[in-house]
Structures are given as C-alpha cells and as structure tokens.
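Reviewer 2 asked us to include a model.

Predict the structure of this chain.
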Amino acid sequence: MKRIRHNLSVFICMVCLLGSLLPGQAFGVDPGQISRTAEATCAFRTIGATDPDPKTRNPDYLARHFLNPEWEGRFPGLGMDYAAAKIAMDQMKSGAFYYVNARTLHMDALLAEALQEGCRQVVILGAGFDSRAYRFHDSYPQARFFEVDLPATSMDKQARVEKLLGRRPDWVHFVPIDFNTQSLADVLAAATFLTDQKTFYVWEGVTYYISQEGVDNTLRFIAEHSAPGSGVVFDYLHADVALGLDYSAYGARRVTSYVAFQGEPYVFGIDPRHLETFVHLRGLEMLSDQSPEALTQHYLIRSDGTVSGKICGFLNIVHAQVPVHSKRRRLIQKAKSQMKMFRVARASDIETHRIDVPHDVQDFLTAYSRLLVSSDFKALEDYFSPDYLSSGIYNRQQVMGFIRRAYQKRPIQYHQIILTRFDRQGNRARVDGYVQRKGYRTPLMVSHMAQKSDGRWCWYRYDPER
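Predicted model (structure tokens):
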C-alpha cells in the first residue's frame, strides 16, 4: 500500500510539473485565465533554487515568493527538502526539471552579458512568474523591464509583486496584451518602449505551443522594431518531435503524451539542421544554438564532476541578434538561396514528386515528412493512392493506427471527428467517430495530421519558408 501511495504521488507530480514544458509563459492560455503552467515552471525553479551545489543551483531565489501556496500543500517539502524533491524529479524519467534549470541558467547568463554591454531595455515575452526584473535590478538599476503577458496572468503577477516588494517597482512595465485585438508593437509603444535603444528579449517556453505564424510575427517584430545589436533568446522543439516522427530522444514520448493530455499539444518545431536558415529568413543573425548535450556540459555538471541529472533531449536554445540593415538584407538573400537546395514542389504538382514506399511504415512517414507541402493542406486520401494500398505494404489496421495518432490542433467547442478507413483497393468508408467536447482533449500523441474545416483529414508539415 505504501508503494502504491508513493507511485500515485509521483504520478501527480508528473502531471502537474511536466506542465512547465507547456506554455507556462505562453500566449496559448485562454484569455481571462491565469496560466497554470506558469505556476508549474515556478515550482520547478523553487525546487532547483534549493540545490546545495552552487554550480547547478537554479538562480531564481525569488521563485518561492511567486509560488501559489496551494502548490506547497500539494507537494510536501517543495522548495525545502531538495534531496526528496530530486528523487521525485528523477522518477519522472522526462528530464524536464533539469532542462528548466539549465534553461534558467543559460538565459540568465545571456541577459547578464547583454546588460553588461550596455543594453537598457529587457522585454520578457510571456512573462508568467519570471523574476528576472527583480533579481537583476540591484546589479543593473538602469535597465527597464517590460513584462508582456495575457491580462489575467499579468494582473495576478502584479498582485504578487506588490505583496513581495510592498509596491509596484518603477523599473518594470507590465504590458497586458489581447492578441485578438492588439499588436505587440502597439502595446509596447504605449508602455514607452523605445525602438532606437538596444533591447534584449527573453522568450522562454513559448514557441512550441503557438503557430508558425505567431513565431514568425514575433521574430520579425524583433528584427524590424529593435536597434541593431539587440538580442533575443528563445527555445524551440525539434521538428521531428513536433510532427510525431521520432520519439527516440530522452523524455520525448513521455513529455509529449503528458502535454497532449493536459490539452496543449506541441504544434511547432524547427529542424536543427535548418535553424540558421530559419533565423536568417526572419531578419536575425544567429549567434548560438545550445543542444541538450551542450546545456548539460555547461550547466548540469556538479562540483564533484558528476552530472546533476539527465536533461530532455528534444529542446534547443537559440541566441540571435538584430544585424545592421545592410547585413540583414544579405542574410535574408543567403537564406533564400539555401532554401532552393531543399525546397520541394508545391501541392499543385506534388504528384511528380512521389517517393518509393519503404516496407516499414515509420520509415515511410519519416521520409514523406521531408516533403515541404504548401500552406494549403493536401488531403490525406490523395497521398494514399490505390496503387500504394494495393501493394500490400499498408493494411487497414496500419492506416487506422496512423490516423488515430492524429490530434486537433486547438480546442474547439463541439465537433464531430470522423475517422476514415482505407481498404487495400483504396476505397474509403466512415468507420468511426467521436465528439471532442470543450475543455477536453484526448491524450493522443502529436502526429502528422490536422483536420480541415470541411472535416477531411489532411497532411500537416512545417515549412521553414513560410
């Protein structure tokens, strides 16, 4: 019985704390709601800040002051007994806790470097319960911080800051934003943000939960509305995990299933091999790309030379800067030239680019995902021609299993989802369906599919050119 209770407590910790890889500082939270995942990230930092080893200790010593008291009641010893909390983190076998620690250390180091070089404006995009504005003030009193977040989370944050400091600090500008009616440029301008001053942007734990359009708009805003030499740091998900093609990285399958279960599946990723091209196309110059291995070596080696813990293996952290205008033009032109080397025909002539089908289903999906399909999604049934199905490589169970791993990209109120089966002759028939209710999402793995408004299943592929 004791073992059952222990396993149950670990499971509850996993469900709640893996939320730190949800959009904790994200704009994916429904307007009017406080980000629950911002609380989860705060809990991870609270635990990490009690690490007795200064080399691997999370620097966020203020996290416990922003943590909701209900979390301490839910997790006895949270932020107090590091050894006990670390055991629970290790039993998750996800690497999320150690990733958050390394991410905080790395982004803090880059921010400190920017402030030392004369940066006077810091924008925290999706601030959640980020404490950098208060931790860095004593060392850099001239810096102004802009904390951008959804209105409900911003209001709650302000209340917690006033409780902690006894007042609203004059060096922090709280910038609530409603993305349905406001633009980032407008709300920052209203908060006295100066576009001619060097600025450092911290964009932590957000990109993998918003659309490519949202990522593009944000990066292009930074490139076009910031002084040359301004910097940005953000983390990104590996594209193969976002597409559900490869879960071999440590923690990928476990974390992906949990975030989908929580209702915020991964929807965006970048192929690390094409990252530089991706960044250049958006008008920025890439300075560094920290892999999980690099983060481990830099931030998770303890004083005795041992590794603090195993980090999740599917997230990287990018540092980029705003180049001068002439260099920006050259970077964009170079990136467009590089795009030609791996661009594939659009959906209109995709038939001329069909590939041979390997005998292994996963190999086929991986190979086919390399095609960059146009933003007008191509219907799934167009890809599974009768010739492919009649070859015997695919049977109904395999295709149905493929479709069942699909997911709805965003919650919708009431929608009938139709699953279609394909027989070996390519005939289609409705064989299954279910209703997805508001506020509920089936705990399915992120996959390669989305659904068009007309109800047809269709192929989804991230296109780095868009």
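The chain is about 40% helix and 15% strand. Residues 347-459 form one domain. We have added this to the supplementary material.
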